[in-house]
Amino acid sequence: MDHKRVSANFSDCHTVRELNLSVPLFDRVGSDPSTYVFSAAYALKLALTGESYESDNTGRNGGIVIGGLATLYGLWLCYAAGVSFLLLTTILFAPATLLYLVAGRERGERLFTTGELLVAAAVTAFALFAVYELVTGGIKI
After folding, report:
1. What is the C-alpha to C-alpha distance for residues 47 and 96, in angstroms, rounded to an integer?
2. Above pLDDT 90, what percent of the chain?
3. Burial class (CB within 10 angstroms; exposed 0-12, middle 13-18, buried 19+) of 67
4. What is the distance between the alpha carbons of residues 109 and 101, in angstroms, rounded to a whole number?
5. Most confidently predicted of 16-25, 43-52, 67-76, 79-88
6. Cβ distance 127 to 93 under 8 Å?
7. 31, 101, 133, 136: least surrounded by Cβ within 10 Å?
8. How confident is the model at residue 4 (pLDDT cuts 50, 70, 90)?
9. CB atoms near residue 32 (< 10 Å)
10. What share of the chain is helix, strand, coil (3-state, %, to 5)?
11. DSSP string of 13-76?
């Protein structure tokens, strides 16, 4: 990222919204709140099922609390980011799901549980809707 460009834009901006619009989308993708939700929810899942605590359950209750709070906080971040931004991020997750399917088949593993399949289908449907909205001008970058 060109830091001179961002600092110059920062001094010209009068509101946070103007600053956010002055930074290109792909420079902001790393701060996508849905990534935090998925990571936190996975940490919560591991703590709830005990998968990552195979030989020693110490810290498992702490993992449940931290994972739960992090998931709630991530959901709040998603709400604060707005629907348009979240729809755009699904465009990034849908192709990643396809890569996961290819890699899983190569290893011969079970790909999805029923719940995971529903989430993957929803993300793909939202990604298709987001592409449609981009093409028709409903979402502007």
Report:
1. 25
2. 19
3. buried
4. 10
5. 67-76
6. yes
7. 136
8. very low
9. 19
10. 80, 0, 20
11. -SSHHHHHHHS-HHHHGGG-HHHHHHHHHHHHHHHHHTTT-SS--TTHHHHHHHHHHHHHHHHH
Residue recorded with tokens 């946070």: 16
Instruction: Provide the sign of the torsion angle of the four alpha carbons 24, 132, 78, 116, taken in this order.
Output: negative
End-to-end CA gap in the chain: 18
Buried b (16+ CB within 10 A) or exposed e, 35-53: bbbbebbebbebbeeeeee
CA angle 27, 20, 70 (to 5 degrees): 75
Closest CA to 111 of 102, 121, 123: 102
Residues 6+ apart with CB under 8 A from 28: 20
Report which DSSP code applies to 138: S
Supply the Cα-derived Rg of the chain in whole angstroms: 19
CA neighbor of 74 nearest in space, from 101, 38, 48, 47: 38
Place of tokens 């998968």: 51
